[in-house]
Amino acid sequence: MTTPSAALHAQLRPVIGAQWINLGLCVALLSVAFALRHGISPAVWIRSTIILAVSLFMLLCGNEMRRGRRWAYVRAKWIAALGSIGFVGVAVLPGPFPAWMRIEQGAQALVFLALTWMMTRPALALFFPRVKAPIHSGTVNPVADASARDASFDYLRAFIVLLVLLHHSVLAYAVMWPAQPSTFNILPAPIVDPQRWAGFDLLAVFNDTFFMALMFLLSGLFVWPGLARKGSARFLRDRFLRLGVPFAVAAGILMPLAYYPSYAVTGADPGLLAYARAWSSLGFWPGGPTWFIGLLLVFDVVAAGAFMLWHRWTANTKAALHVGPYGSPTAFVAILLVVSALVYVPMELVFGADRWLALGPFSLQASRPLLYATYFLVGLGIGAAGTEGGFLARNAGLAQRWPIWVSAGLAAYALRLAIIIMLVLPAVRAHQPLPLTVRLLSDLTVVLCCGTISFAFIALFRRFAIAHHPVFDSLSASSYGMYLIHYPVVVWLQFALLAVAAGPLAKGCLVFVGSVGLSWGMVVALRRIPVIARLL
Q1: C-beta separation of 231 from 520 below 8 A
Q2: CA 407 – CA 83 distance, rounded (Å)
Q3: Which of 25, 264, 473, 519 is most buried, by the most CB atoms less than 10 A from its CB?
């Protein structure tokens, strides 16, 4: 509990004022609902009543915060952050609410976003410190062991790999695909189950907007320190060993194994020679998820060359590396969004969002290589400046204001869904080309989601992933190998479940749990072999 003071009351004055404004909007909403009571749905009454109760509780929390109660501060902060998401969803997504209520909900969303910003300001948070048990040591502000790995980035990388496994596990049960083709072809979903659920489409759209770009950012974080420690030649040798060899094995052996079920469901000759002929008739070598490893290796080669040139130049000029507005996360992400729009939107307009380019086992989504290169460069620049300083510091604005970043990411995703549902899907169902304005709006929401959701996850993990845990450490150490070998496991599990009488949600969960368990177990076993442990 914090002792009440004039300074605390001064900080809370705008917070409580915004809470009263929110209550006034609730009363206005109920008044309009009562005036139109004969022509509105029950959903309006239910939501209006819930909002009124929440608004009254927020005022109670404001009163308790004036007395220094931390529990009230924590609850009010969470309600503001989560309420922002709910209000944005009601305002922009289709539902049973009339237009006048959507406008009012948009106004309340602005109030709650303002509350979230005010509640997460360090100047206010200082009055409600987290109570911690005293830790007695022989030094003041001891410096962490430099050799210790940072749990936040390791665990975030492992989490994104789990999202990749989840993404591939549920694609077979998404509504977006046509029926399983009768001829062997390479599609984003090698198996298309008759059981479908639209919720998996929402998950697939969410993942597709950000998770591979964030993977490239995380991959770039430690490139510059590695180059500085090893030099370009040794760094490249290690990269070719750790990326090039697994890429060759995965693309050359695992991917033909992964795509066999897609061939088998066509009813063609199940023999291996017949499959080999069908494979060779494709005209290219499908690499599946290994495209990420190949493109990352290319980026590492370019980074090593750039480091060599930079090292020679700085040896003569003594110039320092500068990475821009690294102190402000808002300015940094704003610049990233502008650059991302400049490199992604023209490429999408030229190539389209779904076209892939292939050269042997190397493939990439035609509209996104420059976007991924941008995020890799961002990671490289942040890593060069140091991950413990700037806005990535645990006590800096990004981690401390994680509710704002999470709200921004979810609001961006809600906006993207609104564009897809209201503008993109009607044109697709009518088999008409998308107008230029719709494509531009769709592309800009991709860019917005990519930046805000990526940094929302970084903020979450920098704030909460602090201590190491043996299970998470094992998952983190195995995540690279899991990415490499999971695809055959996922596709064969989907193939095995085709004949099982179960719903799409049950099948998707079974495939995900099975692929995580099997991939994780196999990687742990393989890493016991010293030669393979050097690669995985």
Answers
A1: no
A2: 9
A3: 519
**Residues 193/494, Cβ–Cβ less than 8 Å:** yes
Determine the distance from the C-alpha atom of residue 388 to the mean position of all C-alpha atoms in its chain, rounded to a whole number: 21
**Does the pLDDT at position 142 exceed 70?**
no
- The radius of gyration of the chain's CA atoms, rounded to the nearest angstrom, is 26
What is the Cα–Cα distance from 361 to 284, expressed in whole angstroms?
Answer: 7
Residue at token pair 């070598």: 285
In angstroms, the CA 90 to CA 112 distance is 14
CA-wise closest residue to 490 among 162, 156, 158, 157: 162
Element (H, E) at 153: helix 151-170
Give φ, ψ of 15 to 5 degrees.
Answer: -65, -50
Can you tell me the mean pLDDT for 60-76? 86
pLDDT tens digits for 512-536?
999 999 999 999 999 888 888 888 8
Three-state DSSP state, 32: helix
Tell me what the pLDDT averaged over the chain comes to.
86
Q: Taking the CB of residue 358, how many other CB atoms lie within 10 A of it?
A: 16
Listed in sequence order, the DSSP H helices in 323-435 are 329-351, 369-385, 397-400, 402-419, 425-429
Asked if residue 414 has pLDDT above 60, the reply is yes
- Other beta carbons less than 10 A from residue 303's beta carbon: 22
Q: Is the predicted pLDDT of residue 444 greater than 80, yes or no?
A: yes
Q: How far apart are CA 365 and CA 257, in angstroms?
A: 23
Q: Which two tokens stand for residue 406?
A: 């999470």
Q: What is the dihedral of CA 141, 469, 227, 450, to 10 degrees?
A: -100
